[in-house]
Design a protein that fits this description.
332 residues; alpha/beta; seven-stranded mixed beta sheet; 14 helices
């Protein structure tokens, strides 16, 4: 590329962006390896690691037994020993089998060792519903993990974040959990080469607006952007905030947006009770109460085990129409 030429965007998908991030990490640092169920010969449950075993070999791309507690624990041990493991858990519900390792070991060892034992571990997992995988494979539990001190929780919702969040996550000396919404893997678009390191701390304004703040993350971002389009057609200017990092939470960005718009809707695919949406709403009430012209609205999943039937699943999940209706209630 000559002087003055702009870098060219490449057509890709969220899945391919994640794969290229993994490939780049494996190429860049011999300490990095990928481990998990079916990440090797099968190419990953969702096809993210397809071809990496053939490129890097079984020492760097390791298929594991069907024991999340065992292989997450092995990842913690490898990180303590100086390696940079990337542990893939198929779906978020399976991470519950490794919750003791994540909560009681990965998140606490630095504190309990007086700063002597860092755990530079990255754990990736698929989250969310909308794919007819029924009640046991459709959870959105990232808010649970955002409750835990000692870890960083990320939710890449765009091609750029899917491609470029992994490198700084691996550079973090503390455990990082990356939640990839299953509905995003087939999303395609143009991806520019990185021009600067991805920010793992701050939320992003995906669409500026003046009348209402729509605050969301992960798989709910496309629905929220679609809602902003519908609201714009009705003369309502919606600002869309993508939280991106769920722990630490960028409360300052949320407060700044509410100060501009004076109305807020929080969109979260998790169940309403005890959700991340509840935490964001509480932060707004604590820090931006006098900027609000109406109560904060929340759009969350129905408080039921996720149905298998497509129509019932759609009814249980937040939809664009629900976001639009909540925004209208707030501004009317």
């Amino acid at each position: 590329m000559g002087n003055g030429e702009r870098p060219e965007a490449a057509k890709t998908t969220y899945r391919e962006a994640m794969r290229e991030a993994l490939r780049d990490a494996l190429r860049s640092d011999d300490r990095v390896f990928l481990m998990g169920e079916d990440v090797g010969r099968y190419g990953g449950c969702f096809g993210v690691s397809l071809g990496l075993l053939e490129e890097f070999g079984p020492e760097r791309v390791r298929d594991t037994p069907l024991s999340e507690s065992a292989f997450v624990g092995a990842g913690i041990g490898a990180a303590l020993a100086g390696l940079r493991p990337i542990v893939e858990i198929m779906t978020v519900n399976f991470s519950l089998l490794a919750l003791d390792q994540i909560l009681n070991n990965a998140a606490t060892l630095l504190h309990m060792s007086g700063g002597q034992l860092a755990v530079p571990l990255v754990i990736r997992m698929t989250t969310g519903a909308g794919r007819q995988l029924a009640a046991q494979h459709s959870h959105s539990l990232e808010g649970w993990y955002a409750h835990i001190p000692g870890i960083r929780v990320l939710a890449p919702a765009t091609l750029e974040d899917a491609r470029h969040m992994l490198a700084p996550a691996l550079a973090d000396p503390d455990p990082v959990l990356i939640f990839e919404h299953g509905s995003l893997y087939n999303v395609s678009g143009e991806l520019l080469p990185a021009t600067a390191p991805v920010d793992l701390v701050h939320a992003a304004i995906r669409r500026p607006g003046t009348d209402i703040s729509l605050i969301t993350y992960g798989g709910s971002l496309p629905k929220t952007l679609a809602a902003a389009d519908e609201l714009a057609a009705a003369g309502i200017s919606a600002e869309v905030i993508d939280l991106r990092s769920l722990r630490p939470l960028d409360a300052e960005a949320v407060a700044a947006s509410v100060a501009r718009t004076h109305h807020a809707v929080v969109v979260d695919e998790a169940w309403r009770t005890g959700s991340l949406a509840a935490e964001v709403s509480a932060r707004i009430a604590e820090e931006s109460f006098y900027d609000l012209d109406a109560p904060v609205e929340r759009v969350c999943s129905a408080e039921v085990p996720m149905p298998y039937a497509r129509r019932l699943e759609e009814a249980a999940l937040p939809q664009t129409s629900d976001i639009v209706a909540a925004a209208r209630r707030a501004v009317d």
